[in-house]
Protein: AbrB/MazE/SpoVT family DNA-binding domain-containing protein
Amino acid sequence: MKARLVGNSTTLTIPKKFNVANGTEFEAEQLDDGSILFKLKHRNPFEGDWFNDQLEQSDITLDMEDVDSEWD
Structure:
């Protein structure tokens, strides 16, 4: 890989063979030896309103005759 300038940022491209989906977020850390570590950014479950967007509800209807027959 080779760093290149895009606008005001220096970028590194991720090879296609790594199968990283577009929009995947990473956190970067520069280590003492100068290497750069990219880690997947994990969502904090206690921040934001994400659960309303991902909340899926389904209606469950129970037939009590079927439930009762299971316990006879």
Helices lie at 50-54, 64-70.
